[in-house]
Amino acid sequence: MVRESEDAFGRALLDQFQGEKAIGIVERDDGLVETESMAWYFSENRKWHSAERRALRYLSGRILDVGCGAGRVALHAQERGHDVVAIDVSPLAIDVCRRRGVRDARVLPFTRIDSSLGRFDTVVMFGNNFGLFASPQRARWMLRRLKGLTNAGARILAVSYDPYTTASSRELSYHERNRKRGRMAGQWRIRVRYETYATPWADYLMVSLAEMEELVVGTGWHVQRAFQDESFYAAVLELGSDGTHSRGAV
Fold this sequence. Notes:
This protein has 250 residues and is α/β, with parallel strands linked by helices. Helix content is 26%, strand content 29%. The chain has helices spanning 8-17, 50-55, 72-79, 91-100, 136-147, 169-180, 209-216; strands at residues 23-28, 33-37, 63-66, 84-88, 105-107, 120-125, 150-161, 187-194, 197-198, 202-205, 221-229, 232-239. The longest helix is centred in the middle third of the chain and has 12 residues, at 136-147. The N and C termini lie far apart (40 Å).
């Protein structure tokens, strides 16, 4: 369970929900600091990244919304008539989801999902939440676990940031630093800060489309297609034969 003092993300979401202009801080282990407006987590789907909007066409059946934040995906899916289970590690984020009308929102780490949730037809990992797989090893483990919690023909709609679409010397140095430590280039170690709150440090995995296709081999999933939006893309993973070649970004 996330302690109150660690729930920086949820505290920022709650303040935004209550009318403040909340700005979160993402801190990386090499000292990089970036700011993030919490308003985006409350945006309607017409304002989402085009890659996410295009991937919504593949939303079907019963849905698991992973890392649900303020509930933007869960609410949209509910409006379309889907049964949705929304999960997040942040108690305050789940509080915001419930206040906004998400019918089934639970404080639950991604790694602790099990058969008590029932089976799903679509797993949504929008907002760059492919990163929640954290590492190649955990990604493969969780993908196999998801295979056992989903129905035939299920899909994962996952958004990632391609870490190689940069010419920044700082980013390239960080890639090299990660490789020397036996990590993937885009395997960030980050925490979120807001006012006096700070989350624990955690790994967050960002991969290219080619790396994603390689990661899923042997898990029962394959990348069926991907929608590009500058450095971000939304991939549609389907159950079936493993794919080792790109299905192509559109």
